[in-house]
Give the backbone structure.
Amino acid sequence: MRDSVPRRATGVAFAAVLLGGGAVGCGDDSAEEDSAKLAPAAAVAKVAENSEDITSLRYRVTGTVPERGRLTAEASMKTEKTKATAMTMKMTVTGARAKGGLDIRFVDKAIYLGGSDLDPAMSGGKNWVRAEPAVWGRGASNNNSYRVLPRSMEVSPVVQSTFLAGSKDVRRIGTETVDGTKAMHYRGTVTSRDLRAAQSAAKDKATRDLRMERVDQFVNQGVDGALTMDLWVDGDDHAKRFRVRGRTIPARYDTDGGTLDLTVTFLDLNPSVSVKTPPAEDTTDTAELSG
């Protein structure tokens, strides 16, 4: 059973500091030929299997989330199996609900927040604010990013890229070029019931646990019903890009749901990733804000 992370009062203080509330490998031209040898369900299952070998990732996110509106982000992360252990992200929000840029870092079980969207009056004039305990990239009940990240971006993109393996209607769209790489495009719909059924059908504990992680992170999206997913697969049977779309149920800090539409592009697999802790002398701890 997973340990839950306490939602401390510092989360409110941390949220208050906000003013407004490349290619993966080289691939080859054989993507169409190789993917055509596999049925669509088998092809996306292969991507899910290969995702277990990913220990770090550099990626880009663009799209719309109900809590913020339009946003773009570029991030690097380190992961252990399906668990994210460290992450650095620069996110720019251009939606109606909030605007500005954020520099977000998860390291040593703490979250650090900087950037132009940080309110100097709330950060004691320093460039960074710190809060702990912080958890990112886990399941629905274990995340705690102090409302800095939209819930749909609190999950690991590696796990997100495997959702389509639980679809009952996945189909091949055709070969397309993504960032100069030929990739096979697949599309399907996914529900939490589909993913739970796939988990129940697992023949061994290791597979069952991995599929449970998909269920848990799917729930964290807050999707109301089915999620439509597009997946682009390169010639090495890795996800090159995916897009998720769907209606969401209200979050506990929102009055209504909205439309989720995010596209994640994998820029590099298994790169060297180092996440630095901001200087202590330039960082305000949320314990001080709470006081």
